[in-house]
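I'll show a typical protein example:
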Amino acid sequence: MIYRKGLFYEKELPISVMVRFYEPKYKKGLEQVHPTEVFFTLDELVSRVSNNHHLLLAIVENDVVGYIYYEQDIENKLGEIVLLHIRSDKRGKGYGSLLLNNAIGNLINCSIEQILVNVRVTNYGAQKLYKKIGFIDKETIYAYKKVLDSLILG
């Protein structure tokens, strides 16, 4: 999906929610949000944070409820939303929209002109969120996997 520039709007933050860049003091809380079935372990994700790779957290009463990890390529004016996760008991409460809008705002402030996100075709909730924020479908990429029978060597 690709972001349609010009549809960005900032939402006012509810008083009880803070959006903060990652700091090591939040790692334990982040462990409660980060799924095990993604391509980065939590340690790998945290180690990637840099001037062009950002990790924003949604925090409610000192409790991490979600995060967004995004990257920017300033030279090519390209941004990418890599991961967005909200703790399962906090979904549907606006935290994903809040994090996404903050990340988009940060990217726009860095003169990024195009923002991409990859979403599984079966992840209807994420597709709905991204479309609501202003992303449109660009292309569909198909990925296949094959389960191989185990070989028994004798």
